[in-house]
Amino acid sequence: MSPRPASDVAGGGRTLHAVPEPTSDKLTIVQAVRDAMHDEMARDPRVLVLGEDVGRDGGVFRATEGLLEQFGPERVLDTPLAESAIVGTSIGLAATGMRPVAEIQFMGFVYPAVNQLLAHAARLRNRTRGRLSLPMVVRIPYGGGIHPPEHHSESYESLFIHSPGLKVVLPSNPYDAKGLLVAAIRDPDPVLFLEPKKIYRAFRGEVPRGPYTVPLGRAAVAREGSDVSLIAWGAMVRVCLDAAEALSRDGVSAEVVDLRSLNPLDRETMLASVVKTGRAVVVHEAPRSNGFGAEIAALIGEHALLQLEAPVARVTGFDTVFPLARLEHHYLPSRERVVKAVQKTLAF
Amino acid sequence: MPRTRVYEAVTERLAILDPEGRADHDLMPDLGLERVRQMYRDMVFARAFDDKAMKLQRQGRMGTWPPNAGQEAVSVGVAEAMADEDWLIPALRENWLMIRRGVPAHLIYAGWAGDERGTSFPEGVRCFPMAVPIASQWPHGVGVGLSLKLQGSSAVAVTFGGDGSTSEGDFHEALNFAGVFSTRSVFIIQNNQWAISVPVEAQTASATLAQKAHAYGIPGLQVDGNDVFAVYVATVEALDRARRGDGPTLIEAVTYRLGDHTTADDSTRYRSAEALALWRGRDPILRLRRYLESLGEWNEDREQALAGEAQEWVEAQVQAFEAMTPPAPEDIFRHMYAELPSNLAEQMAELSAEVR
Fold first, then answer.
1. Residue A125: its chain B contacts at CB < 8 A?
2. Which residues, given as ranges, of chain B have pLDDT below 70?
3. For A14-112, where are the E strands, in sequence order?
């Protein structure tokens, strides 16, 4: 996809073409992510992108492809290889008027930056009683299923959800990827934007041209149903949609709730679904114990206990190190595992 | 093929005023007597501010306090060199510099007494809150310096850290980034020679901390950190370089922590009374007083009068700090995000109900 000038993004006023330009494109998630950064950089000169290989190489996943050519090296910075300084520099930029979008190449490499994220990014607003705030985004491809070497498959969302002050957002489809990232870039607080790299190019979806936002903290009902609620985010939404399709052939009507943002969390949409169906299965890639599924189960227990027909079930990764390529398919939640958990829940 | 030299480096040390108060007139900056007297006054005020906090802590009116005593020449010298538009990213022994940058002094007391409003500085004060985790503030100075450069500002980001912080990765990552992106940054190490109980000699095998700049392709300079003129001159040079767009500088100010690490520390466990006595003799305030005396510009009467003024000012800060209304319990929640999310609203209501 070639970069488009800002005038197209703003829309309107162009009458020279005999054939009207399409108003949307069929994009993959990674293209939608790129589109979001492109449109926001075209709209707002404060937005800049920094990280390892994001410039000349266009990012190892090509999420920043073409941005260096269009916006130049002052706004697309190939940084030295140092995650802590990438985030630390972003903090300094964001506190003084810029809107950095940093990339950490893989979630398994985020550890060196954790001190900057938790000790500083998450709390500068609080420690200055609101005087300094950090409108910054840290994009991190996360999750398994791409047969990589060690440290390239992790899902550490719980680490960051448990650290008040950081927003944690995970898109599951191209439309949301663009709209949520635009919203994240415009948000006044630091946002961790976790991209499900397994499905970066798995499918295409209609993505409007020009910037639009999907508000942070609103879940989406990805499929309506009445017997059970499947609650998921990121790449696991696809697994749940597949499972719901399979279940429908057996006459089971499964609703799929895509949380989209884990902090802030849209409790209302999630609880309304569980109240309606009476059953909940939470699906996530991260290890089971102390994973976000536990928090969801607790919330459902607190707010919808009397509507429950069965205990909340969890389909998750194991409490182990993420396995290498030859065993990873055993680790990741599958459609079959979700179907089985639903059947168990229905039989309770 | 013979081996060739691919890189050579020299690290300089700058000192202007010796411990006896004798200045090197060739190196002496043209400050004018009035400004020098003002700098002396600042240092006396800074010491009084610190002494008072120690007393308050002993009386249970202050939380854990990290004494700044002995390091006044760094704060005062740098404050004198910085412009209003510059940003300060402090560590935690730059109290007087923060005050000179516009942070109300009583808020520093409040912050260390456990009131989070202490790091809520007035609008327009270009100062980060102090950084406790050690070294993690260095990269912030890179980001601010880069931000200023991208926005075409002539302002400079001045970042502080201690000698211990140079062992952390963030220090090295920051200098490396600053060099690569040629940011508008000045990095100042307050080498007070002790990171709690570990002396700087055990912190690094380098002969100086300033020489670490060479590894990142930026200028580094060591100064006598108890010499307010040397600190001032080095900082002016570094700020000018950054403002010209010629990139960042690392300054190592060699000073000495006369007090304990904090009021929770007992430095007699790890350092000798002899070393302390030696450094008391090199006190930055004492040497500036000797300098002024040598010019016939200072005497005991003036000293007494100044001490009285400093005391009066400090007492006013204590009063302002102790007169602050107690923070509302709900303040715990109010500044986590720009908008209060529903889970925090719920928890805030729980706490409100509990305390009413």
1. 335-338
2. none
3. 24-27, 47-51, 76-78, 99-103
